[in-house]
């Protein structure tokens, strides 16, 4: 792997502290253990061990997507990695995808989306607050991903500028009020996702999804319990990242399909349906069927 270059994001491990910085020629990083000279890192391989100007050792690594997200500046609650991974899978986000999000916030989902759609995809991030967009833009720039995102200071009631999007994600207080705008922006068969903190919001959203004609509705929450990595006394850590939000997903249908044409909008609403999916076995290819 090539060495660090100016403009690269670098993860610094300094004692018990860790942080991400973006390399710039001639810049000095002030820390509690002395100065780190960016020029001394440029050209060095990841994993190199160096010292601050007062001799304190540190290690420089390439940051993971998790590192980038957890190091962003926050002025609002973020969507955490435990939800982000599932969101990316459910919305089928990959290279070349065109995705819009409503509710930029501090930009954790924006960053994850930008990382996944590159090099040829695009993320369109909507927020009506200029201060949110400013912080998110800085976070994306620090991560080296700003070029893949277009920020729009716009009230979603005015609708999305884009059409034929692969996916839309709503991180707003009343997402059921944005479903018409999301439907108009999505391509037929496109993916919709949302996150809300309370059950009454989930109920409102489900009712809105069914009334608008969205199908394949799913509601879930994800819990994460970490363990202390000590071989002699392995046990859970004292605190658990439990409820941080309910995730809701659905699919946009063709404009020619009426809301009641397929029966129940929530394809995973019954345990029998979920069981039948798990017992169906692997999907067979055309070759395995002798076609």
Class inferred from helices and paired strands: alpha/beta
Shape: globular
Q: Alpha-carbon distance between the termini? A: 44 Å
What is the architecture of the largest domain at the second tier of CATH? 3-Layer(aba) Sandwich
Roughly what percent helix?
A: 25-40%
Order of adjacent strands in the largest pleated sheet: 9-8-7-10-11-15-12
**Could you give a short account of the major beta sheet?**
7 strands, mixed
CATH topology of the largest domain: Rossmann fold
CATH class of the largest domain: Alpha Beta
Topology (SSEs and partners):
Blueprint: E1 9-14, E2 17-22, E3 28-31, E4 34-37, H1 38-41, E5 48-51, E6 57-61, H2 65-70, H3 81-90, E7 98-102, H4 108-117, E8 122-127, H5 130-142, E9 149-153, E10 165-170, H6 179-185, E11 186-196, H7 199-212, E12 215-220, E13 227-228, E14 235-236, E15 246-251, H8 271-279
Parallel strand pairs: 7-8, 7-10, 8-9, 10-11
Antiparallel strand pairs: 1-2, 1-6, 3-4, 5-6, 11-15, 12-15, 13-14
